[in-house]
């Protein structure tokens, strides 16, 4: 099962972590992808941050995925981009440059529409309770399974996923999971990634 890191620079800095040093450690730990999700930045600011993070990903042979900022991604030659469902539909005509386009969805209907309109993969959430969505009820495993039943593109789960509950996700046919807060708060992201991967491997032995 693949593990994707989704960034949040603000969380890292709130926890007194050097964001770029953290990205270096995460990339070295070996996730499948790192999605640079910094929506609060301007496009110019995002491009500067992306350039530094891209270097770390290339150094450690980790796929780097831009988020939201189409122009900045093109300027840096980044061929993978991830978008919200709304942005994806609105900006479809701008995406021919990219080899791989991912879409975040929050309903079965969005998942079906994303696949129909050419999404290469889907991130579905949020599955469990998470501080990033305080006060918003999680959609749960049943929601994830509903999406898996109606699309054929790879599906990744996001939202409150930990080594403790990842086994519930592993029992479905998801391609992987996305982690944000846990990695952005950690001084040793390798421990978290190994815990997730080991929990998945343990389940597969039964």
In words, what does this structure look like?
The chain has 206 residues and is of the alpha/beta class. It has a single domain, classed as Aldolase class I (TIM Barrel). Helices cover 43% and strands 18% of the residues. The protein has helices at residues 9-14, 19-29, 43-59, 70-75, 85-90, 108-116, 140-148, 166-170, 181-184, 189-204, and strands at residues 2-6, 33-36, 63-67, 80-84, 100-105, 121-125, 155-158, 176-179. Strands 1-2-3-4-5-6-7-8 form an 8-stranded parallel beta barrel, surrounded by 4 helices. Helix 7 (140-148) links the parallel strand 6 and strand 7. It starts with a strand and ends with a helix. The model has no long low-confidence stretch (mean pLDDT 94).
CATH superfamily: Aldolase class I
| Approximate strand percentage | 15-25%
CATH topology: the name is TIM Barrel
**Mean pLDDT across all residues, rounded?**
94
Number of DSSP E strands? 8
* Dominant shape: globular
